[in-house]
Amino acid sequence: MPSLPAARITHLTTRRLRIKIPEKRRDADFFNAVADRLATWDSIERVETNPLTAGVLIHFSELQRLLVEAAAKNDLFDINFDALTQSSDPPVTRTAIWSFQTADHRLRRWTHNQLDMRGALFVLLLAGGVYQLLRGGLSTPAPTLLWYAGDLLGLWRDRPAGVAAGAASGPGQSG
Fold first, then answer.
1. Which residue from 23, 66, 112, 152 has the least number of CB within 10 angstroms?
2. What is the pTM (predicted TM-score) of this model?
């Protein structure tokens, strides 16, 4: 039996998975077969393929179900799921996250865990918004600052009631 073509994960979000199969580039028959077969899986809502870029975009309902189905039914390509645990963030993003986490850690230590970066930013944005309101800056500065302050609290996000408590505790913390 011939070996399966190697596939690599290039992007993953909560509802989409993008993979590339470079050795099958421009093989329209292969990608049509992939789309047809994957569309029959229960966890997959929609499949888009592009033979020119060797790409497969999978829209799925649950990642766990997709992974279980892939382990049981995938005989189309060989995919390395270890890539899911590796960070694909660009170095600038990793550096920014690291800097924010370091500043957050120091602020928490300095205030004996009474204040974190998210809380400090909220206070600064709220104070800036109120200051702009008092100066008469109703057109742009005040609403923008107040909007960002509300966004830090998650006021503008639609989420289930159970998620709100965990999200309010801040990044890197457990509920």
1. 112
2. 0.50
